[in-house]
Amino acid sequence: MDDFERFALIVNGPALFNAIVTAIDLDLFRFLEESPGRQMSEIAESLEVEPSKLRVLLFAICATGLVKKRGEGYSNSALASDFFAKAGQDSWSRILPGWRALYYPAFAHLTNSVKESRNAALDAYPGSEDTLYARLQRDNVAEALLHDAMSAFTLRSLPSLLQKMDLGGCRRLLDLGGGDGTTALALVEMYPELQVTLVDLPSVAERARDVNDHERIEVLSGDAFALTFDEEFDAVLCSHFLEVFSPTQILSILSGVRHALRNNGRIYIYGFDPNDQETRGVFSARLALYLTTLATGNGMTYPAGDYETWLIESGFVDVSSSRGLPYEHGLTQGVKVDSLG
Ligand SMILES: C[S@@+](CC[C@H](N)C(=O)[O-])C[C@H]1O[C@@H](n2cnc3c(N)ncnc32)[C@H](O)[C@@H]1O
């Protein structure tokens, strides 16, 4: 793709993005999966939409390359079949409605956020708390949309975590900011001896108990800045968590994590990992903008090198990272060693 094609795709992206989510709403991809090669009139009848409106939508979706037109017949591309037509929990059909409802309206406030140095898009959510996560505790519908999208995206990026994080011999793991328990459930299913303690905000903890209930997952309402664990865990996982905070806040959380870990316990930090120069990574860049304008006003998708620096500063040893994982992800780890021992 040359520079102009890339530019054209980006500036027209918001409209095309919405066309894709509308196609998801109408079940277009699933219909074409079951009935490939159907003509416009047949699709309009089945989806119960006016043919002239469907014509516009199909034009836009064909322009994205997600639907192919051969003669008068429409069919899913291979990517649309894989990403949208399957009913799995990791389907992009679960991810994009949340992006539309929460992420994309927020980006219109980016200029104010940058100029005023605050997450200006948060003004659209009632409450006085300074993060989206805290304010969503009173909005069940929006919170469900956010966590559905996060859970599905987490499932997409989970295989690399499961492959790179070795919890053999680990009995007790703390999943900090563990969300709805999607990762915790995958971990207890993979490690039959593992007991996970998930800590998140009260309404999210309640959601985790509802949707990912398991006898070896203990869900606690709590605040990562006020952990009271005392050398109880063999490992602590921060998955897509530290990136929502500022460096100062991260150092404060790492201090609590150190207290929570036993001697020789290990911390794992998993999430987006742009290149060191911070010039590449469109998923990471989008998330950094969302954190800035809406979620916390503080965080950023930090390169793994930043986490390594903060771990060393916090007294962890054997610090290392696996980088270049799918979806621009990286895994950084370090070991707690008692200063006295
Ligand atoms: C981006 S989500 C990550 C969820 C999950 N770990 C994953 O990988 O999908 C960040 C999570 O941090 C939680 N969170 C935010 N502030 C928190 C705090 N102060 N203490 C504990 N959890 C917090 C949010 O409620 C949310 O579930």
Describe this structure in words.
The chain has 341 residues and is α/β, with parallel strands linked by helices. The protein has 2 domains: 3-86, Arc Repressor Mutant, subunit A; 93-336, Rossmann fold, CATH 3.40.50.150. It has helices spanning 3-26, 28-34, 40-47, 51-64, 78-85, 92-107, 110-116, 132-135, 140-164, 182-190, 202-211, 247-260, 282-295, 304-313, and strands at 67-70, 73-76, 172-176, 195-200, 217-221, 233-239, 261-272, 316-325, 329-336. The strands form 2 sheets. A 7-stranded mixed β-sheet has the order 5-4-3-6-7-9-8, sandwiched between helices. The protein has a two-stranded antiparallel sheet with strand order 1-2. The chain starts with a helix and ends in a 5-residue tail after the last strand. The structure holds S-adenosylmethionine (SAM). Residues 133, 150, 154, 177-179, 182-183, 199-201, 204, 223-225, 239-241, 244 line the site of S-adenosylmethionine.
At a glance:
The protein is of the alpha/beta class. The protein has helices at residues 3-26, 28-34, 40-47, 51-64, 78-85, 92-107, 110-116, 132-135, 140-164, 182-190, 202-211, 247-260, 282-295, 304-313, and strands at 67-70, 73-76, 172-176, 195-200, 217-221, 233-239, 261-272, 316-325, 329-336. It is built from 14 helices and nine strands.
Write the layout of secondary structure elements.
Elements: H1 3-26, H2 28-34, H3 40-47, H4 51-64, E1 67-70, E2 73-76, H5 78-85, H6 92-107, H7 110-116, H8 132-135, H9 140-164, E3 172-176, H10 182-190, E4 195-200, H11 202-211, E5 217-221, E6 233-239, H12 247-260, E7 261-272, H13 282-295, H14 304-313, E8 316-325, E9 329-336
Parallel strand pairs: 3-4, 3-6, 4-5, 6-7
Antiparallel strand pairs: 1-2, 7-9, 8-9
The structure holds S-adenosylmethionine.
